[in-house]
Amino acid sequence: MMDPARYALWNSPSMRSYLENLSPDKLLVEGKGTRVRDAGGRWYLDARSGLWNVSLGYDHPRLTAAIERQLRTLPYTNLQAYGRPAAVALEAAERIVAHMPDGYGKIRFASNGAQAVETAVLLSRYLRRVEGAPERTAVFGLWRQFHGFGATAGALTGLPYLHHQSGALIPDVMHARGPFAPVAADQIEDLPRMITDYGPERVTAVVLEPVVGEGGHVLGADYLRELGDFCRRHDIHIIMDEVTTSMGRVGAFTRTEQVGAAPDIITLGKCLTGGYAALSALVLSDRIYARLEEASQTRPFFTGSTNDGHPLALAAAIAVVDELADGETLAGVRARGARLRELLDELARSRPEITAVRGTGLMHAVEFAQPEGAPWESFRVNALRLAAEARGVLLSNLAMVPAIMVIPPLIVDDGELEEIVTAIDGGLDDLASGRVVADPAKGIW
User: What global pTM score does this model have?
Assistant: First the structure.
């Protein structure tokens, strides 16, 4: 057997722990439905949907057939240059846009969520320059919101450790507190007040997650509507980051339509291909596209990369749209989401260490505190994740919030939801009894 510490692969921030705790039996080798199997032969219920993206399970026949057909006919063309895209690109664009809110008629494909958000911000700044307002460069977001890693997406993400780990990121990015409970009465207006103090004439865009990935906070319809009114009065673009919440996760194609919001740009991502291939997208409002089309006649907007809109990914996206189009899966998400909330609330009533349950659809956070009320360190929550894993359920834990995220595939059933909550409950017992020790030296992110 190879010494795990000598594996060539390193993907975890906790590199040494990752390698020292890795064994051949832990490697994942198979997936069926909502479950994955490791090389040691054990099956696990995947309550984190891969990395929140395996929305329709691991062996969906419609998805695999679509990718196989495309693979055998045209495995690659590019969307970046030369004006000869694949026919599947036009078909995918039409099929996806048909399920966007009214007034959003144009889509551009990218390769991942961070790239989509980055492109949206760069597009906003580009439009300011061609419109003669180059001073409008500032972008505002909210603390705790996650928009990806990298020089731009990491700067937009409201997690301070990303801002400092490698030095300067893109400039002119600011963060406000979000309207998250518990909240002071004046905090709801924190973002508009900060923009007003800074100078709206210097601001190009606000970037929002309608459901905050780092803790499950749900931005309410009233908050989004009032913020939208404020931004429109000051001609500030709103970028709705729906990389996580779109394509079924909250029981609809978009959270934007669910709450009646009207952003300028919507980004799509994780569930767009059911996790079977890398794809993201920007959906533009008709107003923004008209401005872009006019501007690009004299000053082109350059962006993109080699694998944007890869044909295999686009074939998968069409299959996902087909699966969601009749509404049955989306209705199931709403029903299962309500049941998951019932089960988590019931658990919280019996567990004083649970301080909050938040979320919507099949995207919920469970937040914890120590019995005396002090926050859990992140490694303690990681220990709960590992305890649940030992009980056969895979969960996500967060880096800056003492919480776990429950984000199962959209095809999860009621029995599997009960299995998830039972594993959390049992994992808490394991921590309390000392059967699992919260040892930061053995944490694996």
Answer: 0.94
